[in-house]
Write a structure and sequence with these properties.
4-stranded mixed sheet; 9 helices; alpha+beta
């Protein structure tokens, strides 16, 4: 049986934010490794010809309400960013740099970026916002900021996104365990049930 949950997410994904704490708890409950795999959801949507629902449409109104409801149920503060979707690409590159340089800081970084995006009025698309996050985590903020523009991490994010697509990932959050894929923050219960059966 696999001992790893792959968590594909985008920092601009509201439902990834909703799921990020619960998936950590689920992994700890089953003593599994949580493999954080940020991707560019925009690139996947572009390839699929997918677009966000039109402002004012029934789907958009429902989703805006449902995200707030889901965040409340998860015990998370939530506000819609003033600019949405946010530019999450630099933050995702930064996550891979931290994964390589200081992996023990990765979970805290991811939680901080998500909270900044969806619980404050700060824009993670702005370099100074990300630099503040790095400083607050005790990271070398100059090295972190350089990594955001480094071709190594630009290519890394592209490669991870392409690999996710090859695996069948089409949205976020997506959780992969063993040979099963679960899409959506509302599928954590199904993932938990599957893991429990696999371990029985």
């Amino acid at each position: 049986m696999s001992d790893v949950i792959d968590f594909y997410f985008d920092f601009s994904s509201t439902y990834s934010y909703v799921a990020h704490q619960d998936i950590m708890s689920l992994a700890r409950k089953h003593d599994l490794v949580l493999n954080w795999r940020p991707i560019s959801l925009g690139a996947i949507f572009h390839q699929q010809g997918h677009s966000l629902p039109k402002p004012g449409s029934p789907k958009q109104k429902y989703l805006w309400h449902d995200v707030q409801r889901a965040a409340d149920q998860a015990g998370l503060s939530f506000r819609w960013p003033d600019i949405f979707p946010v530019n999450s690409i630099p933050a995702a590159r930064g996550a891979y740099w931290i994964q390589d340089i200081m992996p023990e800081k990765l979970e805290t970084y991811i939680a901080s970026v998500f909270t900044t995006t969806f619980a404050t009025d700060h824009d993670i698309g702005q370099p100074e916002t990300l630099q503040d996050i790095a400083k607050n985590l005790g990271l070398d903020d100059a090295a972190y900021m350089a990594a955001l523009k480094d071709d190594v991490y630009k290519d890394r994010l592209k490669q991870e996104t392409a690999a996710a697509q090859t695996r069948g990932v089409f949205g976020a959050p997506t959780f992969c365990f063993s040979d099963e894929m679960f899409w959506g923050a509302d599928r954590l219960a199904a993932l938990n049930s599957f893991i429990t059966k696999q371990k029985a």
